[in-house]
Amino acid sequence: MLADGYKDRKLKDKVFSTAKKAKEAAEKYGKENVINATIGSLYDENGKFVVLKTVADIYKELPPEEIANYASSFTGDDDYKKSVLISLFGDEYKNFLKGYYTSVIATPGGTGAISNTVKNYMNRGDKVLLPQWLWSPYTLMVKEKEGTPEYYDLFDKSGNITVSSLGNKIMKLSEVQDNLVIIINDPCQNPTGCRFEKEQWLELKEIINSASKKANIILILDIAYIDFDTRTEKEKKDILEIFKNFTSKVLTVFTFSMSKSLTSYGLRVGAQIALSNSEEVIKEFSYANSFSCRSTWSNVSRGGMKLFSSIMLNKELQLKLKKEREYYRDILIKRAELFLKEAKESSLEVLPYKSGFFLTIPTYEYTSKVEYNLEKNNIFTVVLPEGIRIALCSVPSDKIMGLAKRIKNIIYESKNS
Ligand SMILES: Cc1ncc(COP(=O)(O)O)c(C=O)c1O
Predict the structure, then answer these.
(1) Cα separation of 333 and 352, whole Å?
(2) Are residues 307 and 186 in the same domain?
(3) Closest-CA residue to 217 (of 206, 226, 231)
């Protein structure tokens, strides 16, 4: 009965099924004997889901009509849009963006922001560039509109981060497609925690500008985890400056998510932030993407948007939120340092991690054996095609301790059995 092209669809979400197995194991063997490294949300050192106090307090104080009513526009409330710009470009965003054009569209989470962009810019049948190690819904978004994912390597043969694979693919595809959509998840890449540094961004800028002589380039920068990056504000600003140096044939769409920034996953609030030096490009972005909002989800949670603007437009609350988030970011750093130190001591290979919720251990062709043996030992991870993802965000430090060595032994056993 399904429409053409929709018939063979079945979502295989291993994350939820593995999480279920971890829960069952905890009931059977006791919580203290099970490591559940599958959950992608932030948990504290007592294993409790993190609700930021600033966020919870403000949400509770919102007038009921601010929660129950529709948003004032399909594309989001004005204060929310302003708050999103502040959150990415800082309080001085107007100065920062002088001479450039932007448009903010509220979406249901970062997911809505990415899929809305793919939908509006990918021509049917096109290839879209996605990272080799990735958050898997990107693939679904491309397939949903009958596109084909083309994966670029994030690391060179020596295991260092590189833009050369991405660059080569950009140059090749720009020769044969009118539009080229590229998704980059940076910083705090899910699942590896890797990040492009300034030199890589500068290299990429040259490549993209050169490719834009042949095709329109739509660069989706998934910044879902940006607030957990470990760089200074100045370093982050320096990177953002680079996005002002693209040609008018390049459109950057930053995709923002309140899920991680406010640990408000269930409120489903995010945004597309389009940036270009062409007024025309931004105008058509606004028109077409608003159309998609109206036809897909109509409008975004008013309460969620109000929550964000109440915090971001109040200096004191903004600072309070930042401090609270920094507390948890420091916990993440501590967990990562502990894991990486022990990984080094036991010669466990880990993909280059810089910051964020996750890190990845490559397990190559032994992946399913490793998965089986890990689970036998009550260690539950998200299994990727050639590796396993450890969610540092949800495993307390006392459970991180010794984990790298255990995993190393299990991989050794899996390779040699
Ligand atoms: C890399 C990445 N991008 C985007 C998202 C979108 O999250 P949400 O739709 O909840 O904002 C997630 C969520 O897990 C993610 O891991």
Answers:
(1) 14
(2) yes
(3) 206
Of the candidates 71, 137, 74, which has an alpha carbon nearest to the alpha carbon of residue 289?
74
C-alpha distances (whole Å) from 295 to each of 73, 220, 232, 242, 299 are: 14, 22, 40, 34, 10
Q: What ligand 1 atom has the least distance to the C-alpha of 265?
A: 10
Q: Please give the number of the atom of ligand 1 that sits closest to the Cα of 258.
A: 11
pLDDT bracket for residue 326 (50, 70, 90): very high
Ligand 1, CB cutoff 6 Å, lining residues: 40, 109-111, 135, 185, 190, 222, 224, 257, 259, 265, 270
Cα 192 to Cα 366: distance, rounded to the nearest angstrom:
19
- Cα dihedral 177/183/184/185 (nearest 10): -170
Q: Are residues 204 and 331 in the same domain?
A: no
Q: Which domain holds residue 339?
A: 14-52+320-415
- Helix/strand/coil for 130: strand
Ligand 1 geometric centre to CA of 208 (Å):
25
The answer to whether the Cα torsion of 341, 227, 153, 206 is positive or negative is: negative
- 119 in any annotated domain: yes
Query: Domain containing 171 — which CATH number?
Result: 3.40.640.10
Tens digit of pLDDT for each residue in 328-359? Answer: 999 999 999 999 999 999 999 999 999 999 99
pTM summary value: 0.97
Per DSSP (E only), the strands in 45-178 are 101-107, 127-131, 148-152
Residues 346 and 379 occupy one common structural domain: yes
